[in-house]
Amino acid sequence: MKKTLICGGIFLAALGFTSCHDDDDDMPIKDDQVIIRDDPAHLKHRISHDNSGLISIDGGSGTSNRKGATMSINRRAQVRALQAENGNAKFSLALVAEVFPPEYEGQLLRATHVAVSGNYAYVTYNTEGETYLGGVDVIDISNVNNPQLVVSAELPNVDLSAVTVDGNKLLLAGAADVDKTANLTTPAWVADLTLQGAMLNTSYNFTDIPGYVATDITSNANSYYAVSGDNGVLAKLNKTTREIEVTIDIGDLRAVRTTGTKVVVLSGTQGIKIYNEDLTPVNEISAEADIPSSKRTIDFYQDYVLAAQGTRGLGIYNINSGELFEQIPIPPYEGDGSDIDPSDVVTNAVSTNGDNIFVANGGAGIALYHFDSPSELTFLGSASFRTIDQSSSNFVLSRDNYVFVASGKGGLKILKMVDLTPPTATCDGTYDPYTGQTQYDFNINSGETRSYSDTKEFASAINVNGTLTWCGWLKVNGSNTNINSAGTLNMYGTLLITQNLNVNGAMNLSGTSTVGGNLAINGNGQLRVSGNLSQGNSGSGSRLQIDGKLIIDGEVICYGDLNVNGSGVIEFANSNAKLIVYGNINNNGQVVNGSITQI
Fold first, then answer.
1. Are 230 and 1 in contact (CB under 8 A)?
2. Could you tell me if 402 and 448 lie in one domain?
């Protein structure tokens, strides 16, 4: 049976160091068994921005009778589909980079796990089937718009299951081919590597544990805790000596996490088990048996433990009482019932970030939720990458304003959270709410002046020929939003334009805005951005075309091409203003008081 492992030598070789062991035979993986890639020219080819852009989040409209439904699983909690007219969209997502998986002797590896510490993300890889072949990437994420792969290691005879960071230690879990590695009594083992300012020094330590594969590892202030799968154990290890102090036999272990003084594990056959730090039992939470030998994770929110449970979706339990708080089925998804293998639609992983919940649902992509209160959970929608590479979402981790999705042979997707709730939406007056229709075109006629303070979603186009001032939250789903030559739109707050924006008059954006399609600032048009504007859906080939004037008093991100024609002007209002372009730049106009950043 094939399982996995990892070793510190990968990073030591990468940094040009040797092991601190005097006897090379003590090393389970020697430096000559590791292929290090640290040439920037080579690594650059594994980072792609071709599909960078805003990711569509399906928030509940569709034909499925589940989609958009309100699910009240028990009387204390409610999961409800996001209604855009309520203005509850907390954030949008933008794909900023894809990291293609490494390839070794014609075999493509699969991304399995991600850990983040400071400005670096650590990504592990393994190989499907009986072959042992793994890898580790180190990615510099100090620039949220432009992550950089800085070192990669390929490890023949090794698979990697999980990685985490404990202070200045990088902890890894996996398995090895014991016939090709020295001094291992079992395939499963864990390792710690000492980090020095996010990189590594010459010290590392490893421990083999009972079982075929170490599936996860975590820590608290005093100990490491690791789990192994079939015929495996929950093991407590001494942080100083790395010796195993306690083991408990538990079948089919998938994940381990610590919270406060508790150690929580997830078994595919025995549900959730909760222990004290010394591994004395506290509680058990029963659950149906899961698909054998599959990736699953757990995370926490306040007094809840959230568990990925395969075909059953996401289970949320009270960690103290063991009571089920919610069982959330996998929401309907793009391609439901057509081009996706149903066996690939399973909940693999869950990650919490503040009040936000991210769930990896395999072929169904990722689902997003938000705790509005401890008793109310809102379904924000689902996002899929199937239009990019047909990949499956096997693991998800969200930290700060990043979301990392390990998608098997699709590698790693790095997404940025685009905040749609600016801290202030200061309007220049007090306005009435909008009481008109929202299903048809919304027209402001020439000579008209209208002002509203409201949260609304318009199904069709908006055409401004007069003056419109809107304070609050506004979404436009029509094919075009037009600010015509005699028109002025003053927007304070959050503006979401699903498709195209044409500016022939004056437009002032104060707050946060997204434009999914093309953005055209025509001859006499002027767009002033005081805040943040993101433009271009992922893979759409969108463009920002300027024949008029763009004034930036904040940040504008163009995920497609930028064309500045002869009469076009880009003016940076201050030294902090930014224009970031992911596509091609064709500039025949003027750039005043600043410069354009091309990714």
1. yes
2. no
In this structure, is the dihedral angle defined by the CA atoms of residues 175, 180, 181 and 182, taken in order, positive or negative? positive
Q: Which residues of 496-526 are buried (b: 16+ CB within 10 A; e: fewer)?
A: bbbbbbbbbbbbbbbbbbbbbbbbbbbeebb
Beta pairing, strands 133-140 & 262-267: unpaired
DSSP state of 140: E
Same-domain status, 479 and 571: yes
- Note the pLDDT tens digit of each residue in 276-300: 999 999 999 988 777 776 789 999 9
Placement of tokens 């080819």 in the chain: 45
Distances (CA, A) of 265 to 187, 271, 532: 21, 8, 42
Determine the Cα–Cα distance for residues 427 and 93; give it in Å rounded to an integer. 26
Residues 411 and 446 in one domain: no
Bridge partner list, 273: 265, 284
Asked if residue 469 has pLDDT above 60, the reply is yes
Q: Quick one: three-class SS letters along 296-307?
A: CCEEEECCEEEE
Number of independent structural domains in the chain:
2
Last residue of a domain, one of 385, 419, 453: 419
Indicate whether 27 pLDDT > 80.
no
What is the spatial distance between Cα 537 and Cα 117, in angstroms, rounded to a whole number?
A: 29
d(CA 293, CA 401): 31
Buried b (16+ CB within 10 A) or exposed e, 266-276: bbbebbbbbbe
Are 463 and 577 within one domain?
yes
Range of the domain at 68: 50-93+294-419
Structure-token pair, residue 435: 């009481």
**How does strand 77-81 pair with strand 376-383?**
parallel
Which amino acid appears at position 38 of this protein? Answer: D
Report pLDDT digits (tens) over 425-458.
568 778 999 999 999 999 999 999 999 999 999 9
Quick check: 118 and 68 in contact, CB under 8 A? no
Q: Is 263 among the domain residues?
A: no
DSSP output for 269-323: TTEEEEEETT--EEEEE--PPPPTT----EEEETTEEEEE-BTT-EEEEETTT--
Picking from 579, 580, 584, 581, the residue whose alpha carbon sits closest to that of residue 592 is 579
Report the amino acid identity of residue 106. Answer: G
Structure confidence by residue, pLDDT tens digits, 302-341:
999 999 999 999 999 999 999 999 999 999 876 544 567 7
Q: What is the model's pLDDT at position 89?
A: 65
- What integer best gives the mean pLDDT of the chain? 85
Please check whether residue 533 is in contact with residue 94, taking contact to mean a CB–CB distance below 8 angstroms: no
Distance of CA 76 to CAs 31, 82, 115, 252, Å?
Answer: 56, 19, 34, 32
| Region 487-496 average pLDDT | 95
Q: Specify the higher pLDDT residue, 88 or 274.
A: 274
Same domain, 528 and 587: yes
Cβ–Cβ contacts within 10 Å for residue 403, how many? 26
How many angstroms separate the CA atoms of 362 and 341, rounded?
10
